């Protein structure tokens, strides 16, 4: 199958009258090798139902269709969503294995088939909420690779004690083990973005707890990182009513109340949450 190159991307955009919108993070990949590389890193196989958020003009979609059993693409821009089936057909690929849904991924509730792998060049302004939402609402998603702004990739894959470690790192770690999977040159995009890009891969791990626990853990995470410089006993005081009460719970959990949120693993937040509030 032939994939899309720079010339085809520009032609398609012209045909559709698309001026890439910064507000929708529309930077299209014009390098077929990069698309194949992303699919390879994701380890997509012929038994996978791949979910792609933001297929755009179809660069990565066509590479996914070479390997996956089926591809479900969710695109917010109606012109792009409407044109995709034709692009898939033109590139000698049966449309049987391909479905496109015209929707904001953040509003997505369900899909026609349970996805097993997420592979996407995510719209950068909503990359973290989109990733967290997909992990939350599709428990069948076992793994994936997403391309995001370099700084966001560093935050998602960060380990405790680093300056990159924060809310995205701990919330994503509730669902999965994440790691950096390489940098992507700015020159593979049209238009060339003003930021660097990196790949992040993830593998879902065993659930750390039920939905009730997750909600509590996420409330604790938000509070712990709301003011990064605060010690936990003071950062969590609004949840427990006072810093004294927060200190008591932290002591019970075996966690030093003078630590900051940036020192805690997601499992530590689970230990605190299990003590209730
Ligand atoms: N996958 C294509 C590629 O690699 O060339 C396009 C990637 S581009 C970075 C992001 C795409 O996400 C655009 O097509 C944009 O219209 C779409 N998009 C932006 N916000 C979205 C949202 N909330 N839900 C679904 N798609 C969105």
Can you describe what's shown?
The chain has 277 residues and is an alpha/beta fold. Helix content is 41%, strand content 18%. The protein folds into 2 domains: 6-204, Rossmann fold (3-Layer(aba) Sandwich); 211-273, rRNA adenine dimethylase, C-terminal domain (Helicase, Ruva Protein, domain 3, Orthogonal Bundle). It contains 12 helices and 9 strands. Helix 5 links the parallel strand 5 (117-121) and strand 6. It is elongated. The site of S-adenosylmethionine has 23 residues, from strand 1, helix 3 and strand 3.
CATH architecture of the largest domain: 3-Layer(aba) Sandwich
Q: Can you summarize the main beta sheet?
A: 7 strands, mixed
Distance between the termini: 56 Å
CATH superfamily of the largest domain: Vaccinia Virus protein VP39
Q: Order of helices and strands, N to C? A: HEHEHEHEEHEHHEEEHHHHH
The radius of gyration is: 21 Å
CATH class of the largest domain: Alpha Beta
Number of strands: 9
Q: Using the alpha-carbon principal axes, give the shape.
A: elongated
User: If strands are numbered along the chain, what order do they take across the biggest sheet?
Assistant: 4-3-2-5-6-9-7
Domain Ribosomal RNA adenine methylase transferase N-terminal: 34-206
InterPro entries: KsgA/Erm (IPR001737), rRNA_Ade_diMease-like_C (IPR023165), rRNA_Ade_Mease_Trfase_CS (IPR020596), rRNA_Ade_methylase_Trfase_N (IPR020598), rRNA_adenine_dimethylase (IPR011530), SAM-dependent_MTases_sf (IPR029063)
Main location: cytoplasm
Function: Specifically dimethylates two adjacent adenosines (A1518 and A1519) in the loop of a conserved hairpin near the 3'-end of 16S rRNA in the 30S particle. May play a critical role in biogenesis of 30S subunits.
């Amino acid at each position: 199958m032939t994939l899309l190159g720079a010339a085809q991307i520009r032609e398609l955009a012209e045909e559709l009258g698309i001026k890439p919108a910064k507000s929708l993070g529309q930077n299209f990949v014009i390098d077929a090798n990069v698309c194949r590389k992303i699919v390879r890193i994701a380890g997509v196989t012929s038994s996978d139902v791949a979910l792609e958020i933001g297929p755009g003009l179809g660069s990565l979609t066509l590479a996914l269709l070479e390997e996956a059993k089926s591809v479900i693409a969710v695109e917010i821009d109606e012109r792009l969503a409407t044109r995709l089936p034709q692009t898939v057909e033109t590139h000698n690929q049966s449309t049987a294995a391909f479905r496109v849904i015209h929707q904001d991924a953040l509003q997505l509730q369900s899909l026609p088939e349970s996805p097993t792998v997420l592979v996407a060049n995510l719209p950068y302004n909503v990359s973290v909420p989109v990733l967290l939402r997909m992990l939350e609402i599709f428990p069948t998603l076992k793994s994936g690779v997403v391309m995001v702004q370099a700084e966001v990739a560093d935050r998602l894959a960060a380990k405790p004690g680093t300056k990159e470690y924060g809310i995205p790192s701990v919330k994503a770690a509730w669902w999965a083990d994440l790691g950096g999977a390489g940098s992507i040159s700015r020159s593979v995009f049209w238009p060339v973005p003003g930021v660097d890009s990196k790949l992040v891969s993830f593998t879902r791990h065993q659930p750390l707890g039920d939905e009730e626990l997750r909600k509590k853990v996420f409330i604790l995470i938000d509070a712990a990182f709301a003011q990064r410089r605060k010690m936990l006993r003071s950062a969590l005081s609004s949840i427990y009513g006072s810093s004294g009460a927060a200190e008591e719970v932290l002591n019970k959990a075996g966690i030093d109340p003078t630590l900051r949120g940036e020192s805690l693993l997601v499992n530590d937040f689970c230990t605190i949450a299990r003590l209730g509030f």
